[in-house]
Amino acid sequence: MITAYVRLEVRRALRETGFLVSTVGVPVMMYLLFTNLGDGDDGPYKKAAMIGMAAYGALGAALSVGNGVAEDKTTGWLRQLRVTPMTSLQVVTGRALTGAVVVLPAVAAVLLAGALANGVRMAAWQWGAVAVTLWLGSLPFTLLGLGNGYRLSAQTTGVVNVACNLGLAVVGGLWFPVVLFPGWLRAVSDFTPTHRFAELGVAVTERTAPGTATLAVLLGWAALFGTYAAVSYRRSARTV
Prior knowledge:
mainly alpha
């Protein structure tokens, strides 16, 4: 049953033109724009920017799952799910799995742009490893989106998710290299989930393992956002 539910939600998400434009088209466009300004040929920068923009696309796609949840509350779909044989845990898990699927097109599109348009070169295993690490690392942001969707109204969820998307992307260094930040902002960035998320992909491109601090920060944020999603879902069960 949960597999059928995930297939349904994935089809619903991928049919949305706005979703595809914002999570696939925009990151690819920004990546190609940022890396082709001027007449230089900076291969390392194009590779680093590719990781950052793939992470940005995954971030937006993961958060967008919460927009769908908030809309489901408005239309009554969430109420209908509660009268099906599916348990609350299965419903939340299904939504989280949906987020895990819908981030893949965003990641794949930017990686393809890097390989085909910008000539980024890596070993075959590195391409696959980058995609997998960014896929797995997007889980905290799916949980954040779910928490917002279950707790907030549809309109408020959209606004809050956009703010989270832009704020986390900029402060986490997904748009611009962290080395360009002033010292205080660089220190803040080290504790953001987005900065550590991008470091997962960077580690693969550099043929190294993610640092202990990177994994610790990501796991800490995943636990925090997971708790937020669970509490928000229980709260919505009393009001929807």
